[in-house]
UniProtKB/TrEMBL annotation:
Catalyzes the synthesis of alpha-ribazole-5'-phosphate from nicotinate mononucleotide (NAMN) and 5,6-dimethylbenzimidazole (DMB). SUPFAM superfamilies: Nicotinate mononucleotide:5,6-dimethylbenzimidazole phosphoribosyltransferase (CobT). This is Nicotinate-nucleotide--dimethylbenzimidazole phosphoribosyltransferase. The keyword Amino-acid biosynthesis does not apply.
C-alpha cells in the first residue's frame, strides 16, 4: 500500500437507522429514560458499526502492539529498553496486568512484536517485527515512510484476520518503553499545543527526567518544524512502530466495520493519527478512559470522544480498554435480556 492509497481509503458511514433502533430498544426497557447514560449512546454506536441492532459482543480481544523507541537513548524514561521485551514475554504468558484483567472477563489478548529491540522470538507473542526499535528522533527521523506504512498495514491486517475469526469488538493496547515521549511529541505536533502542557511523567519519571523529556520533545519539534496537518510526516518522524500499528488497527476497524476500544494516551494519539489520515475512522472508535497523561484529554477532545472512566489510569497495555469491556458486558446483559415496560405491565402508568 502506498501513502496515497492509504489516504484514499473510503470509510462507510455507520447506519443512523440502526443507531435509532438500538436507542428505541433502550427506551422500551423498564428503567428511567436515558438511565444508562453514555452506555446507551455507546451501544447504539456499536450496533451501527456492526450493522445490526441485535449484536453480540461476547468475543473480544485486545491487540497489544509492542515496540522499542530509539528516543530512550536521550534519557526520557525511567526504564531501559530491556523492559519492553521482558513485559512482552510476561504478556505472552498472560501474566502481565492486561493478561490478568482480560482473563477475568474472558477476553483474549494478542501481544504483537511490531518492533521490539531484540532478535529473539518471544513465546505467545505474534511476530510482526518491522525493525528492532526505531531511530532516536532527536538525531534523525524515527522511521522511514516504508516502515511506517508497513506498521500501519500490520494493524489493518490483524483486524481483518480477527474479524474472520469471529471477534466483534477489539481494543488497542501497547508496550514500549519511551512511548509516552513519542506520543506526546506526536500529540503536540498534531494539536499545536505547548509541549509542557501535553507531556507527563509516563511510567513514573522524576522531576529532572520530566524536564529532560520536555526539552527533548521541544528541541525535536523545533528541528522538524511540522505543519499541524502533516500527519504522516509527524507519525513517521517522531512517532513509533506501536503508534503506527495502532493507527492501522483503527483504520482496519473502520474499513472492516469492527469497533475498536481506545486505551490510554498512546492509543488515543494513534486514534487521532488514524482519523486524520483516513477521515471517518472515528465513527468506529469507542472511548474508554481519560489517562492521567495530559495529552490524552486533548486528543479525545480533538476526536470529540467522551471517555466514561476518569480514574487517573496510567498503566497502558490495554488495561483501561479491558475495564471498558467489563462495563460494556454489563450494559449488554441489560440490552440482550431486556425487561420492558410491557413485560412488567406498566406501560399505561409511565408517561415519558
Ligand atoms: C514494568 C512496566 C510495565 C508496563 N506496562 C505498561 N507500561 C507503560 O509504560 C511505558 C511508557 O512509559 P514511558 O514512556 O515512561 O517509558 C509503556 O510501555 C506503557 O505501556 C509499563 C512500564 C513498565 C516500566
Ligand atoms: O495512558 C497510558 O496508557 C499510559 C500512561 C503512562 C504510562 N504508560 C501508559
Amino acid at each position: 500500500m502506498t501513502k496515497e492509497e492509504l489516504q484514499q481509503l473510503e470509510i462507510r458511514c455507520p447506519s443512523e437507522e440502526i443507531k435509532k433502533q438500538v436507542q428505541a430498544n433502550w427506551d422500551a426497557v423498564a428503567k428511567p429514560l436515558d438511565g444508562l447514560g453514555a452506555f446507551e449512546a455507546l451501544t447504539a454506536k456499536l450496533g451501527a458499526a456492526l450493522g445490526t441492532a441485535d449484536f453480540d459482543l461476547t468475543k473480544k480481544a485486545v491487540i497489544v502492539m509492542c515496540a522499542d523507541n530509539g528516543i530512550v537513548a536521550e534519557g526520557v524514561s525511567q526504564s531501559g529498553q530491556e523492559v519492553t521485551a521482558a513485559v512482552a514475554a510476561s504478556m505472552g504468558k498472560q501474566a502481565s496486568s492486561v493478561g490478568k484483567m482480560a482473563k477475568s472477563i474472558g477476553a483474549d489478548v494478542f501481544p504483537v512484536d511490531i518492533g521490539i529491540n531484540s532478535t529473539e522470538k518471544i513465546d505467545g507473542v505474534l511476530d510482526q517485527k518491522i525493525r528492532s526499535g526505531t531511530r532516536d528522533f532527536l538525531m534523525e527521523p524515527a522511521m522511514t515512510e516504508a516502515e511506517t506504512l508497513a506498521a500501519i498495514e500490520v494493524g489493518m491486517e490483524l483486524v481483518r484476520r480477527f474479524k474472520a475469526e469471529g471477534y466483534s469488538l477489539l481494543a488497542t493496547g501497547e508496550m514500549g518503553i519511551g512511548n509516552t515521549t513519542t506520543s506526546s511529541a506526536v500529540a503536540a505536533a498534531l494539536s499545536g499545543c505547548a509541549v509542557e502542557e501535553i507531556t507527563g511523567r509516563g511510567a513514573g519519571l522524576s522531576d529532572a527526567g520530566l524536564l529532560r523529556k520536555r526539552q527533548v520533545i521541544a528541541e525535536a519539534l523545533q528541528k522538524y518544524d511540522f505543519g499541524k496537518d502533516e500527519t504522516f510526516r509527524i507519525l513517521s518522524t517522531v512517532g513509533g512502530l506501536d503508534i503506527a500499528g495502532l493507527a492501522g488497527v483503527f483504520i482496519g476497524g473502520a474499513l472492516y466495520q469492527i469497533p475498536v476500544v481506545l486505551d490510554g494516551v498512546i492509543s488515543t494519539v494513534a486514534a487521532l493519527v488514524a482519523e486524520r489520515l483516513v477521515p471517518g475512522t472515528r465513527a468506529y472508535m469507542i472511548p474508554s478512559h481519560k489517562s492521567k497523561e495530559p495529552a490524552a484529554a486533548r486528543m479525545l477532545e480533538e476526536l470529540a470522544l467522551v471517555p466514561v472512566i476518569d480514574a487517573s489510569l496510567a498503566l497502558g497495555e490495554g488495561t483501561g480498554a479491558v475495564m471498558m469491556f467489563a462495563l460494556l458486558d454489563m450494559a449488554m446483559t441489560l440490552y440482550e435480556t431486556r425487561t420492558t415496560f410491557s413485560d412488567i405491565s406498566v406501560e399505561q402508568y409511565v408517561r415519558f
